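Q: I have 326 residues here and want to know how they pack in 3D. Can you give me a structure?
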Amino acid sequence: MDADAFHRSLTVVDGHCDTVLDLVGRPLSRPGGLPRDFLKRGSFGHLDLPRLVEGGMACQTMALFVEDALVPDATAETHRLIDALESVFDRTDRFVQVTDAAGIRAARQAGKLAALLSIEGGECLGGSLDELRAFRARGVRMLGLTWNRANALGRGVRAPGPGGLTDFGRKTVREMERLGMVVDASHLSDEALDDLLAMAERPVVASHSNARAVCPDDRNLDDARAEAIARTGGLVALTFAGAFVDADPARVSLARFLDHFEHLLAVVGPGHLGLGSDFDGYTDAYGVVLPSCADLPALTSALLARGHAAETVRGFMGENWLRIFE
């Protein structure tokens, strides 16, 4: 099989990146950097429109994340991040906002690249379900309940102490399910994830998490919780962030990333895995799986070279995300 031709035939969907912060001059992948033009091919960072096209992307999920220092103004700041992204849409007809799988497919058929909006951390809700509805009205279709910290919805994985979802967190999950929004479990504490899995009536995703059995970081999923996510009909999307690939940056590589893929493939099956790169959400000091989104064809080639069936690769690279966004 011609791996490059096969890659070009795929509907590639990435469930998470932090590139919106680059647009406003607060990049996570290179702290202290200046704003960069998403429409021009960059020589730094991981992701921009020309490199997405080069890498064969069909839909890039654009996460809206508010850093610790800005949490007191999280609602307004998240709206400002959407404003920044909308200014990109206004400047090109090649990058278009979508809200579902049909929009992704239509954009690809038209030769355009789709963008789906997500939020990383429920601080932006300010304790109000009206804010959740307001963000949905602006096109947000996925919400990560917490980042690493605790908030009004529950406890993130790095927050000290016990505790899972709060009453407001449970109400938020119920309203998201009613609105048809995807609940994202990445960054939840184990207790909060257990609470979510106990109540979920629709598919749950972990948009950028790897296998704890391969790299024992609490940000990764243990097998039982990964399997429980799959039982909701959801998926686990694997991340390139080096700290969650291997504790030793020297061991971080595409091959090591595939160790996570193969472990989770055995745990959840081929229909419950996806890609959640976290491009522009980490520094390369922790090791590099792929230099940028332009290198995504190498991932498809490596999966095929390790003997994985074409349909397994097709699902992982995008079709499983399309099922979720259906």
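Q: Anything worth noting?
A: The chain has a mean pLDDT of 97. Residues 3-325 form a domain with the TIM Barrel fold (CATH 3.20.20.140).
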